[in-house]
Specification:
350 residues; 39% strand; 17-stranded mixed β-sheet; single chain; disordered N terminus; alpha+beta; Lipocalin; 2 domains
């Protein structure tokens, strides 16, 4: 009997170790770069052709040898330049960790740029870790959280450059011209998805029982909590129509009627059929936690995700709306002889 019990314990331990050493599943990924934290959801899936990886909904390069893992996850700099972080690390005791940097040795020019302008560096280095993603439910019902106040970014999200686009979205993107087609270039609102989580565009929130109002730069957004719905025939808007409901201490927001635009500067399209779902809560440090998920089957095979944590502003800083003069945009096109081409691209604007 003792022998059988010992064998049973060994088998149980073996099964636990095997489970802990599996790469497949969802992981909470954290990158530390220049002392600043960035978070994202990493999912490693088992397929007939082996393991594949997605980070924040975008495909990621994946190579696994034993317990060693290497991933390529692209992003963009603050100046909009795409680059790829190569994450190298190891799975041990159910968690992953390691270092990241460029895949190849950067050129002297890139090293000089990174030294002079760290936020524009396309070859950053740092450390990373990942722990199993767990969805926990509170044991007791929580009251709606107080989201009111002025917030500034504390922990950023991983900004994915590459998305899993549908064929029609790839065709639309192929003709995208960031100079002529990006709405912000001509002082038009960038829309909910592109402006969300952007540094310098942090939320100022006013909350009552039937509505939450959010000021984002020069844009005002309303989230209705009392069940009201838009009229049957409603136009599209940069911020769409948002309705929210509380699930304990978490606010769930659903946004529809979004004006077609782009997800990022590279031109991934957002269609009028998009539904955006956001979750807002307050973490143990008193920070506002936001996760935005883009559901747009017209353009994305996999929903894309953005996230951020904001800390409450405690000072007396004065906030002003953003200023923009569209005359400079049209004047530059005129001076460069591109104004006629701009008019011919009217089908690229909404």
């Amino acid at each position: 009997m003792k022998l059988l019990t010992a064998i049973g314990v060994l088998l149980s331990l073996s099964m636990q170790l095997e489970a802990n050493d599996s790469f497949a599943g969802k992981w909470d990924l954290t990158l530390i770069q220049r002392g600043f934290a960035m978070e994202g959801l990493l999912e490693i899936r088992e397929t007939q052709n082996g393991l594949i990886a997605y980070a924040e909904g975008g495909p990621a390069l994946l190579s696994i040898t034993g317990q060693d893992i290497e991933m390529g996850i692209d992003d963009r700099t603050a100046a909009g330049m795409p680059f790829e972080r190569t994450l190298r690390g190891r799975l041990s005791n159910g968690t992953m960790s390691g270092k990241f940097g460029p895949r190849d040795e950067p050129t002297p020019e890139i090293k000089s740029l990174c030294k002079r302008l760290p936020l524009a560096c396309p070859a950053p280095t740092g450390t990373w870790s990942a722990k199993p993603h767990l969805v926990t439910q509170p044991e007791t019902p929580q009251k709606p959280a107080d989201l009111s106040g002025s917030w500034v970014i504390d922990v950023g999200g991983i900004r994915r450059w590459t998305a899993d686009l549908t064929p029609s979205a790839k065709a639309w993107k192929a003709d995208f011209n960031v100079v002529m087609d990006l709405p912000a270039q001509r002082c038009q609102p960038s829309g909910l998805v592109l402006s969300w989580g952007f540094r310098g565009n942090e939320p100022e929130i006013f909350q009552n029982s039937d509505k939450i109002t959010i000021a984002l730069g020069s844009t005002l957004r309303r989230i209705y909590l009392d069940g009201r719905q838009p009229p049957e025939y409603t136009d599209w808007y940069p911020m769409g129509f948002s309705s929210g409901q509380w699930q304990g201490g978490t606010l769930i927001v659903k946004t529809t009627h979004l004006q077609p635009t782009v997800r990022e500067w590279m031109g991934d399209p957002i269609s009028e059929n998009t539904t955006v779902v956001e979750r807002y809560s307050i973490d143990e440090k008193g920070r506002l936690v936001g996760v935005l998920t883009i559901h747009d089957p017209d353009n994305y095979n996999e929903p894309m995700v953005k996230r951020a944590r904001w800390r409450k502003e405690t000072g007396t800083k004065v906030r002003f709306p953003s200023l923009c003069d569209p005359d400079s945009f049209y004047r530059e096109l005129f001076d460069d002889g591109l104004l006629e081409e701009y008019w011919q691209r009217s089908n690229r604007r909404y």
